């Protein structure tokens, strides 16, 4: 297969989901004729596990390899949570690829020592007990009260999360715990940037944490999306698309 699409939107998913968390964007972008690429990380969605552990940096190289294979020269990445950490790494080492950024429910800071310990404790528990407890915890922590009222949506979210393998979860948690602090990059970001927080994200990336990214990037736009917590593209796609599509059309 050969595809040539010099510019596209790049969808980077949150943990422990996969590219299907952007299903509402795929539909809207196709209607608008906006080119996009969506990837799964190893052990999530349709992507097989890698035999070894990996870092965010190695994951970024892998994604850039996919873009190169498709002939894509420039992208606007849309990264939710873990996707945002990959975006910082793209800026650190593949700046020439970037036309703009859409950071969603993510943070520039590295894990605190306490957060690292919690991730490694979770790794041990997943190894012993499996992933079910983590999926239940994430379903609760990542969604707004409004989303929780929608049983169909919650079931769909659970299905997406359940596609993650236990090995994939363990390796991603390790990569997340060991990621670098990205705050020093903020002042250098000079491409059009949109930063989006879920208004109801109390447990994972509260709006004031997400706003820290926007505060550090000169000229960036910060938006809070109602009726959503950690997964605005999935929880409130109508409002999300209303903000994102004009930005993409202007900057792609």
Concise structural overview:
The chain is α/β, with parallel strands linked by helices and 252 residues long. It has eleven helices and six strands. A six-stranded parallel β-sheet has the order 2-1-3-4-5-6, with helices on both faces.
Task: Based on the model shown, name its key terms.
single chain; 252 residues; alpha/beta; Rossmann fold; 6-stranded parallel β-sheet; 11 helices; 12% strand; globular
Draw up the topology in text.
Elements lengths: L6 E6 L10 H10 L3 E3 L17 H14 L4 E7 L1 H12 L7 E4 L8 H17 L2 H10 L3 H5 L1 H12 L3 H12 L15 E6 L8 H10 L4 E5 L6 H4 L1 H15 L1
Parallel strand pairs: 1-2, 1-3, 3-4, 4-5, 5-6
Helix pairs in contact: 1-11, 2-3, 4-8, 5-7
Give your account of this protein's structure:
α2 (56-69) packs across α3, α4 (113-129) runs antiparallel to α8 and α5 (132-141) packs across α7. A six-stranded parallel sheet has the order 2-1-3-4-5-6, sandwiched between helices. The mean pLDDT is 97. It has helices at residues 23-32, 56-69, 82-93, 113-129, 132-141, 145-149, 151-162, 166-177, 207-216, 232-235, 237-251; strands spanning 7-12, 36-38, 74-80, 101-104, 193-198, 221-225. The chain has one domain: Rossmann fold (3-Layer(aba) Sandwich). Helix content is 48%, strand content 12%.
